[in-house]
Amino acid sequence: MDQATAEERLLDAADTLFYERGVQAVGMDAIRQASGVSLKRAYQLFPSKEHLVEAVLRRRDRAVLAGLQAYTSARATPAARILAVFDYLDDWFRQPDFRGCAFINSYAELGGVSEGVAALVRGHKRAFTAHLAALVAAAGEPPALADQLAILANGAMVTAAVTGSPEPARQAADVARRLLEPAQGVT
Amino acid sequence: MDQATAEERLLDAADTLFYERGVQAVGMDAIRQASGVSLKRAYQLFPSKEHLVEAVLRRRDRAVLAGLQAYTSARATPAARILAVFDYLDDWFRQPDFRGCAFINSYAELGGVSEGVAALVRGHKRAFTAHLAALVAAAGEPPALADQLAILANGAMVTAAVTGSPEPARQAADVARRLLEPAQGVT
DNA sequence: CAGTCGGGAGAACGATCGTTCTCCGGCTGC
DNA sequence: GCAGCCGGAGAACGATCGTTCTCCCGACTG
After folding, report:
1. In terms of domains, do A121 and A31 share one?
2. Which residues are CB-contacts of A102 (< 8 A; sequence separation ≥ 6)?
3. Same domain flag for A83 and A153
4. DSSP readout, B45-77?
5. What is the pLDDT of residue B133?
6. Which of A75, A184, B84, B159 is deepest in the core (most CB within 10 A)?
7. A142 & A121 share domain
8. In angstroms, rounded to a whole number, what is the distance separating the alpha carbons of residues A160 and B120?
9. Are A30 and A63 in the same domain?
């Protein structure tokens, strides 16, 4: 097994286990067993568990944003691209191993004790909101809508995780549709 | 020190430390030191750390819902009572030690490995949504609004925690105000 | 006032964790 | 074919954790 596939297998195993059980509940030996990569090799690829945790988050950050990009850019109109975000959530929430947003979970578990993890989570959510802001700007909607949609999306993630139901995706999409209607109060 | 105050001091110290650093990052000895209650006494009040964690969550559940009740019932009109939820969040987010919702954090950290914690978090969020549902019903709004407000509130909590800003409370309130306007599409 | 009992301080214990080291087998270059 | 080395398996190590035990002081009861 060459170095690249060992690294990939390690990241795959660590990602799955961390997401399922949380970071602190997973020992390095469980990652070794799940990945098939020896501890010695693991430690020469990632000098500590914290490095591995951060590498997992960095890879997931890229994957999530790429997936979201693919989902939204497939739609025809700017408004449809905004609503596609919630279709993306709906698909995600229906996956049987869904257990919330790995970044929110990591922040909750480690944000208070690991500045590295906290910074990565902040960066991911900032990038997520920036993606929404680009969609909002392309749709000619007011910039304030981006933060509102981000709150909706994050809220749907945690609510779906806690309740174990995919319903929040549809409920958040309903709200988003209301926000895309022309405003009433101001004329 | 009698039994009741020992229990209260334990719960106070454990609550503060768990909230600051997470549950697994806090050892029983740190709780002993912060509370001034001996380990022996602690273990005859709570037979294990897991019991203590669950007792902390149960007490916080009561406190949060009572605080919310006080906040919302102080307003005059049904619509104002709904919007008061977001004033409550705004006050909360501005507290210097704010680090997100303890229930969401606990679920993220332990929901995958402790069924007791997961059940308590589900119960708290269900009660929170039920409170919103009561306000929504009293305002004569459609029942679907309650779940939408819950998503908004939960989203504001995690977004405020990750970004470290109280802004999400106001942004979520803006969305809630839009939802309280009469709907447009359906006439 | 003497004896008993509850509680405090902290050591002790077994388990587990992150990390490193040892030993050994198999592949590579001459 | 053989010496040298890289990597795997797993033991070892020190730290820390949850939990229990020991020792001792101080207070209450007859």
Report:
1. no
2. A15, A18, A19, A57, A60
3. yes
4. HSSSHHHHHHHHHHHHHHHHHHHHHHHHHTSSS
5. 98
6. B159
7. yes
8. 16
9. no
Token couple for A168:
């929040």
pLDDT in tens, B79-130: 999 999 999 999 999 999 999 999 999 999 999 999 999 999 999 999 999 9
Q: Determine contact, residues B135/B71, Cβ cutoff 8 Å.
A: no
Distance from CA of A9 to the nearest CA of B (A): 22
**Following DSSP, what letter does each residue of A73-142 receive, concatenated?**
HTSSSHHHHHHHHHHHHHHHHTSTT--S-HHHHHHHHHTTT-HHHHHHHHHHHHHHHHHHHHHHHHTT--
**B130 found inside a domain:** yes
* Number of domains chain A is built from: 2
B172: Cα separation from own chain's centroid: 17
Q: Tell whether A9 and A38 lie within a shared domain.
A: yes
Strand D reaches within 7 A of the A73 CB: no
Instruction: Give the residue among A139, A107, A133, A102 at the shortest CA–CA distance from A122.
Output: A107
